[in-house]
Write a structure and sequence with these properties.
Blueprint lengths: L5 E3 L1 H7 L4 H12 L4 E3 L11 H27 L1
Parallel strand pairs: 1-2
């Protein structure tokens, strides 16, 4: 199986650090199925009917920042 490069934000890392090892393993398995991934934000959605409403705008902003950083890197590297 090929190893994929997975990038993630500081916000995702903060959430990841709160997980127990079994949950981290479960997330890792799912991520391993994707060819390219960026993990923007994480959290428990159970019992929170407004989770998407509150976090999608944050994820959008984080993704915009990611794209901006990629553009800057490409411009710098030529």
């Amino acid at each position: 199986m090929a190893a994929w490069e997975v990038e993630f934000t500081d916000e995702f890392q903060e959430w990841w650090d709160t997980l127990d090892s079994d949950t981290q393993d479960a997330v890792d398995v799912v991520v391993g199925l994707r060819r390219v991934a960026i993990l923007l934000i994480g959290g428990l959605k159970a019992g929170d009917d407004r989770w998407y409403e509150r976090h999608v705008p944050t994820a959008d902003d984080l993704y915009d920042d990611h794209l901006r950083e990629i553009g800057e890197e490409e411009a710098r590297d030529g």
